[in-house]
Amino acid sequence: MTERPPISPRSPRAALEPEQVPPPPKRSARARSPLVVAGNAIITVLLIGMLGAGGVFFYGKQKIEAPGPLQDEKIVNIPARAGMNDIAEILQREGVIDDNRWAFIGSVFALKARADLKPGEYAFQKQASLREVIGTIVEGKVVQHPVTIPEGLTSEQIIERLSENEIFSGTVREIPREGTLLPETYKFPRGTSREQVIQRLQQAQKRVLAEIWERRASDVPVKTSDQLVTLASIIEKETGKADERSRVAAVFANRLKQKMKLQSDPTIIYGLVGGKGTLGRPIKRSEIMQASPYNTYVIEGLPPGPIANPGRASLEAAANPARTRDLFFVADGNGGHSFTETYEQHQKNVARLRTMEKQIQNDAVEPLDEPAPAVAPTTTETGTTQDEPAPKPAPRARTRPNR
């Protein structure tokens, strides 16, 4: 056991008096230094600042990543020259961000994205977070609008369509040369200039034409790629059926090889109306033999240029026609055509078509006259005047006997 110190006897008076506590040690001069005081204050401020910054960072990160208020996907247009405050106001008005636009502005600064915000039309996803919203604008993920240019339109008709489309801007200074635009479905952002659209269609046509010309059949009766486009434009206007293009191409290729006139009605129409594309009435018999650089009932070989802008399929057909001996084709009454090698069989097909037409025609419709033969210069139409329209076509098909 540990020995306790001996207890000294005290007087009653001394026992009643409190014991005196020794005085605290004196603070050193170093502890009382202003530098130390200042250092302690700085450390305290830094600690508080770090805690505050951590809290702000945690809150900001949570705010940036939190789902937004947008209930459904929405397209919003941010105009050119819109500043950060303008963008925040637009997004707030459209419901992409909540009422606290400062959270968006703060997030832009936090992500160092102020200089990278781009104008354009954007599609924001449902409940897009601030990070996703800002990322979409910074990356310039603008909405791409599909625009389809149908095959067989003239350049003038294509320009008219582009002029009517509100997503494009500006005007076209000059109508492009016929046959230099590639009909296809393209995608453009809102605000694309119409001149840029034309340039893209022309570039696409040059690329596709070069590819097709490179792998054309060796016996194609055209000498240049421009002539190939001209032939393809006639094929394009003669049939819209995919499975017929190569066979129609074969008819015209065989005629060119045998020095026969092409006798294509669409070339007559183009010679009459040019780039407007449509005549709006049947061809008159007087117009069939009317002199025109484009009238293939009169001229030998191909016309001087395309009569429309052919699509890829017609270019392919012109470059690689079917291996047939067909020289004639006529509408079959069902939306397609009947093809033959001889004029005699062709006449039978024409007669069959006339019989079908008579069965479906209303009594109020004037009966069709006997059509002119395709290749027989000594044989002419009878029973018609020079100003009388050519035979009326059957529904959805042309009926001229040379086709």
From TrEMBL:
Catalytic activities: a peptidoglycan chain = a peptidoglycan chain with N-acetyl-1,6-anhydromuramyl-[peptide] at the reducing end + a peptidoglycan chain with N-acetylglucosamine at the non-reducing end
GO biological process, one term: cell wall organization
Coiled coil (residue ranges): none
Keyword Transmembrane: yes
Annotated site (Important for catalytic activity): 238
GO MF annotations, alphabetized: lytic endotransglycosylase activity
InterPro entries named among the record's database cross-references: MLTG-like
Membrane topology of the entry: Single-pass membrane protein
Gene3D superfamilies: Classic Zinc Finger, Endolytic murein transglycosylase
Key words, A-Z: Cell inner membrane, Cell membrane, Cell wall biogenesis/degradation, Lyase, Membrane, Transmembrane, Transmembrane helix
Cellular component terms (Gene Ontology): plasma membrane
Regions of compositional bias (Low complexity) in chain numbering: 371-388
Region spans: Disordered: 1-30, 361-403
TM segment ranges: 35-59
UniProt KW Cell membrane keyword: yes
Compartmental location: Cell inner membrane
Taxonomic superkingdom: Bacteria
Main location: membrane
Enzyme Commission no: 4.2.2.29
PANTHER family: ENDOLYTIC MUREIN TRANSGLYCOSYLASE
Role: Functions as a peptidoglycan terminase that cleaves nascent peptidoglycan strands endolytically to terminate their elongation.
UniProt cross-references to HAMAP family, sorted A to Z: MltG
The family this protein is said to belong to: Belongs to the transglycosylase MltG family.
Protein name stated in the entry: Endolytic murein transglycosylase
Organism of origin: Nitrobacter vulgaris
Gene expressing this chain: mltG
